[in-house]
TrEMBL record:
Pfam families in the cross-refs: Peptidase_M20
Keyword NADP: no
InterPro entries xrefs: ArgE/DapE_CS (IPR001261), Peptidase_M20 (IPR002933), Peptidase_M20A (IPR050072)
Domain of life of the source: Archaea
Protein name per its UniProtKB record: Peptidase
Length: 474
């Protein structure tokens, strides 16, 4: 009898042990997949978002259709989150609010992406491809990984008791200036709904970005000036080189480390006895460094008589002094002032567009400095400088509550985080002039605006929890 009793007890113990281990496995699975909803985790949601070709390229007349914002809205609707699609000037945004009371925090991310040069990609840029811990695809890091993460955070937040209102927006024109974000900022101001804090889910590296420079676009136009000269016609290609950080984003370009093909070309023209005939290159947009440019030129001396362009020659020679313009910023920046010549086109005039980043709001200071250089090097050229006067730069005190809370949560998630400066501009610049305390943040990844853009999956999986916790704490 004792033996049977011991065997029965042993069987019961083993059964309880199996139940316990099964429960533990379920708990672990729940923790690992805490981002899953209806079979959709953050990676599969990102995969859906990447499949929408939401390229913004005004030069080619490309802009995101309504399909991606409709997918975002429909998905949120299925989770019981009310939202609306806002349209302005042919661009879309998804806007909504959760909770009651005064607005405490705004979450924002963008679903539009920069153009791609498919021949530079090793995978289909609009099909999320996973290799190890990396998920490749246009927008995976900038900024659809953040869109997916924020959507899943909202799914959890809608069931929480919030002490205040959470506002959210997904915009479709950040890559061409962010007028939709500006519209939302003005809308919230007019309605008395400006939040205390803004978490702009448009960063990288899982560190709170507390400083970002303002962007300025400079267009320099010069008429062709054709003449004949003798020599040998040659052709030379110049390539981008980024040996440390692989990217094409102009704001990440670091003189002394990286090689810009247009700056290298300018130095070549300045130092050799050559005259420009024509220029071609893989130009994408104002804040994307071209991967290569090709100069057709005349090497002066004995040879055939060829038509050259003195206007283009002077314009190309002016690039080196232009990118070294002594612009004085208003505040400190890790990156100082960056000036990159990323676009050339011929529209009856030779046109070069410069991307300028500076911790400054002074268009007049930049205009004065650029004009002085142009007048000395290309006196016949026309200069047009543009910036959004309603946008500022991001400059948040590292001791501010939103920064400290973010760092605490990141450390709890196993990330060794400190506040940092981000190279490029972002939509938070439309809210900081109204006194909104803001940070930018996002998962780890690389090749922003470049070929083979990727996000690190382990990092991405932490982002929904980070955004949820931030909303609860703030």
């Amino acid at each position: 009898m004792k033996t049977k009793g011991l065997e029965l007890a042993k069987i019961q113990f083993l059964a309880l042990d199996v139940q316990y281990r099964t429960l533990l496995d379920k708990l672990k699975t729940s923790q690992v997949n805490h981002n899953q909803v209806g079979g959709m985790d953050v990676v599969s949601l990102l995969s859906e978002l990447v499949s929408f070709e939401t390229v913004n390229d005004p030069v080619k007349g490309m802009k995101p259709s309504k399909d991606c914002p409709k997918f975002i809205k429909d998905t949120l609707d299925s989770w019981g989150i009310e939202s609306e699609i806002i349209e302005k000037d042919g661009y879309y945004a998804v806007y909504g609010e959760i909770g009651d009371g005064s607005p405490k925090v705004l979450f924002m991310a963008h679903f539009d992406v920069v153009p791609v040069n498919p021949e530079e990609w090793k995978t289909d840029p609009f099909k999320l491809t996973i290799e190890g811990d990396r998920a490749y695809g246009r927008g995976s890091a900038d900024d659809k990984g953040n869109v997916a993460s924020l959507m899943l955070a909202l799914r959890d937040l809608v069931n929480e008791k919030l002490d205040g209102k959470v506002i959210f927006a997904f915009t479709g024109d950040e890559e061409i200036g962010g007028n939709m974000a500006m519209h939302i900022a003005e809308k919230l101001r007019d309605e008395g709904k400006l939040p205390t804090y803004m978490v702009n889910a448009d960063g990288i590296g899982m560190k709170p970005i507390i400083r970002r420079r303002k962007g300025f676009s400079v267009e320099i136009r010069v008429k062709p000036e054709k003449t004949k000269a003798k020599g040998i016609v040659r052709e030379r290609k110049f390539y981008v080189k980024t040996p440390v950080v692989e990217t094409r984003h102009a704001a990440y370009f670091l003189p002394g480390v990286d090689t810009h093909p247009m700056i290298a070309l300018s130095q070549f023209v300045r130092n050799f006895n050559v005259l420009a005939i024509s220029l071609e290159g893989k130009f994408l947009k104002g804040n994307v460094v071209p991967s290569e440019v090709t100069l057709r030129y005349l090497d002066l001396g004995e040879g055939q008589e060829v038509e050259v362009d003195l206007g283009l020659t002077r314009l190309l020679r002016s690039i080196v002094p232009l990118v070294r313009a002594p612009i004085k910023p208003e505040k400190y920046s890790d990156y100082g002032v960056s000036i990159t010549p990323n676009v050339y086109s011929f529209e009856g005039h030779h046109v070069i567009k410069l991307d300028i980043r500076a911790m400054s709001n002074s268009k007049e200071e930049i205009e004065r400095t650029i004009q002085e250089i142009v007048e000395f090097n290309v006196p016949e050229a026309e200069v047009d400088i543009r910036t959004n006067e309603k946008a500022g730069y991001l400059f948040t005190d590292p001791q501010d509550r939103i920064v400290r809370v973010t760092i605490d949560i990141l450390r709890e998630l196993g990330e060794d985080a400190e506040p940092m400066e981000g190279p490029g501009a972002s939509d938070s610049r439309y809210f900081t002039p109204y006194g909104v305390k803001a940070i930018d943040i996002g998962p780890k990844g690389g090749n922003i605006h470049g070929p083979n853009e990727y996000v690190e999956i382990n990092s991405l999986k932490k982002m929904p929890m980070l955004y949820k916790r931030l909303a609860m704490e703030l």
